[in-house]
Amino acid sequence: MKKVLYLITIFIAQNIFGQQVDCDLQYTAPVTQKSYSSSLACVNENVGSNTNDVLYEPTVNTLIKTVRVNLHVMQKSNPLIPDNFVSTNPDHMAYLNSIFNGGNYPSVNDVYSNLDAPLWGGATNDSYIVDSRIRFQLMGIYFHKDDLGWSNNGGNCGSYCYDNYKINENHELNIFLYGTHDINNTSVGGCGPGFNGESTNYIVYKNTYIDYLAHLPGTPGSGLLGGNPGVVNPLIAHEIGHCLGLHHSWLSTQFTLFPDIYSPHLSVWCSPPVDQYCTNNVMGYSNDKSFLSPRQLGHLHQLLSGGWREQNN
Question: How far is the C-alpha of 152 from the C-alpha of 248, rounded, in Å?
């Protein structure tokens, strides 16, 4: 019976993921100054195009690349006041799953699979790619009671959570939802090392739980399962972009690499339909993060298809 169940499982998995490419985190010492010491690499890449071409852009025929993700929730050690999501609350679990798996639109997978048309202070009418052909598979949700971890040891971009609680880091991206490193700052935000050649890839993200409590299910401005769907998920999509090798889209160096991201555009929080030079690029600072340019997407696929990242900042 066990053998039969195993064969059935293999058959189902092959049919579900047969058209996808799984991505691993690979750690290798850099060989030149412009080489990355960490990268997300995909195996068995066969897109039918030369991904080493600087002008490469994915198409509807590009194989989907799947990045595996572990989600960690950092709680306070007091079991009565964890000050973060808990595994025993079904609403909390539904919300956490929805970050990647839908139900709280736009999920991270929604952002990358259903990109919007580019905005630059209004509609541009330029052609764009709707589906990035990149997906994220949530492997597990883990809860850790650690007072230092709840504040990420007082650091916005520090590696405390990663150093102490990373799981399968050579193959999976670890994302940590911690409380806050500054009790006077309740803004939602995070940090995703990777675009500056860091030797590790992870995301630390603050105040998700505060945002959830401010937008409980059914309250004005909340997503279907709670939280502000226009804030948390797109910002996580932004930080993932950093981990995959993209820098902020308003930097002049990015205009050189990706001439299709519109220059100039604002480096402050802005609204694309209203503010001049404001774009809806995922890697920007606007309140609408729903577009990645064809060249940006081509760059992501180049990096996910090999063991090295070309430094891009």
Answer: 23
